[in-house]
Amino acid sequence: MIQKRFYIYLMSVLMLLALVACSGTATTVEVTSESISTAVESSSATAAEVVVVSEAVATAPASAAEVLAETDTTPETVTVAVADAAAAVADNSAVAITLSGDAIAADGAGVTVDGKVATITAAGTYTITGALSDGQIVVDTEDEAVVTLVLNGVDISNSTTAPIAILNAEDAVIVLADGTANNVTDATSYVFPSAEEDEPNAAIFSNAGLTVSGNGSLTVTGNYNDAISSDDALTITGGAITVNAVDDGLRGKDTLLIQGGTINVAAGGDGLKSDNEDDATLGYVAIEGGVINVAAQGDAIAAQTDVLITGGEFNLSAGGGSGAQIATDASAKGIKGLVNVLIDNGTFVIDSADDAIHSNGNVTINGGTFTLNTGDDGMHADATLTINGGSITIPTSYEGLESAVITINAGDINLTSSDDGINVAGGVDGSGQMAGPGRGGRGQGGQTGEAVTYTGSYYLYINGGTILVNAQGDGLDANGAIEMTGGVVVVNGPTEQMNGALDYDATFNITGGTLIAVGSSGMAQAPTTSSTQASVLLNISGQSAGTLVNIQNAAGESVLTFAPAKAYSSILFSSPDLAQGTEYTLYVGGSATGTEVGGLYTDGTYSGGSEYGSFTQSSMVTMLGGQSR
After folding, report:
1. Is 45 helix (H, G, I), strand (E, B) or coil?
2. d(CA 100, CA 80)
3. How confident is the model at residue 433 (pLDDT cuts 50, 70, 90)?
4. By the 8 A CB rule, do 564 and 547 touch?
5. Which of 208, 231, 327, 549 has the highest local Cβ count within 10 Å?
């Protein structure tokens, strides 16, 4: 695993350098370890987190599936133990442990009973049935084989410690017998053997790797701390699991792997968590399927290193949702992986007070369907945010997408923000808790920028996809440069004059795709003259929301028909259909038919508008009209 992570790190750096070298423009970018560290350190990460992330931040694998294919997530011995347990139950060869209120009976070897405590001292399969009040099941064996507990309709509680405590084992498996309901409830306070000890500390606790499987149900109430916790790996392959915890719901210190089942978590801390801070190859959460519902006061899903998701259905709430206010030092994110977040597929509904999807390093989205409501950023990565596909809807956010480097290759994105729509900058965690739109405004309003050589580290790359932005602040905001080679981008920008639909500091080279950006004219910008695709920036008298804007060539053919969602006085348009040396006529008002996406009409007709004026596309970037201040 360590060699795999190092290999991915090296290949990621080489791929990034190759991407820059093949960008096809005169623009240059300098990516250094210092620039990566700067991006990381600009967040609110702790010193320990910065060390972990700065060492591995360039580790941006192509997909979650790629990483999981190289990772031994479930030991073969555990897989065999689950199968053996089913056979042992079927042929009655498992050791039976019967709970009877305040008594325990065991009918085989490997179990010692002392009052209301049953201690399992040998590997094997044990079937547990009945109810136990103020009692405990303990696993403590030196055997180098798996201990399997089949919960066959149990109700276990304890007033001083963990009802199920796996203190020592090679690996442990809990099987939820088909059709059974099982309940485990711990105390609000624990009594430990000495002041130096603080474990067990969860209703179901394990020092060994723990796997939960089967087709029954399990309800765990963690009144003291966590509901289910392993100091090793925690794996869930099936079952209907409901947990309520004062602190974390499900915790696997080394790894948390979910392969299936229906999981419902209510947590006063984090919902799903892996938090190994000592080994950079551990501390990850991997989810391959299942239905996962989490309501957490902290993060819904949190990993010290990576969050890897290949599928599943997710309904996540963090910190009380997008309308809640949290403390400046609190974290209430939907999905958080400090090094990487890699999502290949799945359905995600996230409502979070903090970022919906967050990494102090890299976020990569390869597919999936997302509905993200957040009090801060929809997706935030301190280093890189890459979107290769998926359907992403962000109805509520402070900033929709934010990272030092954002690359959009494909996908459908529809976002609404109270500040910048897409922001390329060194992120500040918790910025959404700050007041008011328009913290940007760094661009030089109204300029058609001259070609320059950019040597900074902040970039927005748009190579494909359909991107719809509705922003109160800047629509596309880059504290550096923008490169657009394809896709469709529609920006409904700000109505007030101190922000612009487009705001960049260095260069904006456009070589392909369709770009429409409307909003106020006070800070309006167009792409730079180094572009190879023509653009026009039209500053006109104020028009009301929904008033169509139409541009026709000399033959009367429409090259643009667009209905802005908000009042506007500036129109930026770039398209392969816009040709140098050609005269165009601008119309406003009227009506349109055809296919409409984000206000952009295609394959239809336009009629009834008023001629506003005409222009000739005399250069690569043409600007007409003055600015409103």
Report:
1. coil
2. 31
3. low
4. yes
5. 549
Q: How many CA atoms does the CB half-sphere of 120 hold within 13 Å? A: 31
Peptide bond into 193 cis (omega under 30): no
Q: Which two tokens stand for residue 171?
A: 């690996």
- Using alpha carbons, select from 403, 406, 422 the residue that is nearest to residue 414: 422
pLDDT of 566 higher than 90: yes
Close Cβ partners of 284 (under 8 Å, ≥ 6 residues apart)? 255, 256, 274, 303, 304, 305, 306, 307, 308, 337
Model confidence at 163: pLDDT above 90 = yes
Name residue 605's amino acid: T
Q: Kindly state the tokens that stand for 16.
A: 């990034």
- Categorize the per-residue pLDDT at 449 as very low, low, confident or very high, splitting at 50, 70 and 90: low
Element (H, E) at 560: strand 558-562
User: What distances in angstroms separate CA 426 from CA 260, 406, 484, one per listed residue?
Assistant: 37, 12, 21
CA distances from 147 to 79, 208, 219, 301 (A): 12, 10, 21, 29
What six digits make up the tokens of 557? Answer: 């053919």
pLDDT at 432: 60
| pLDDT tens string 494-513 | 998 888 999 999 999 999 99
Residue-range domain boundaries for the chain: 1-74+272-426, 77-258, 495-624
**Local structure of residue 431 (DSSP, 8 states):** G
The SS3 assignment for 568 reads: strand
Q: What is the pLDDT of residue 11?
A: 39
Would you mind telling me the total number of residues written for the chain in this entry?
629
Helix (H, G, I), strand (E, B) or coil at 18: helix
State the pLDDT at residue 364: 98
CB 443 within 8 A of CB 523: yes
Q: Contact at 8 Å (CB) between 348 and 370?
A: yes
Distance CA 34, CA 188 (A): 47
Query: Which DSSP symbol is given to 31?
Result: -
Per the CB < 8 A criterion, the answer to whether 36 and 383 are in contact is yes
Question: Does the pLDDT value for residue 84 go beyond 70?
Answer: yes
Instruction: Note whether 113 and 120 are within 8 A (CB).
Output: no
Q: Is the pTM of this model over 0.70?
A: yes
pLDDT, mean of residues 163-191: 96
- In 3D space, the residue among 518, 383, 343, 233 whose CA is nearest the CA of residue 526 turns out to be 518
Which residues partner with 140 through β-bridges? 168
Contact indicator for 284, 313 with CB cutoff of 8 Å: no
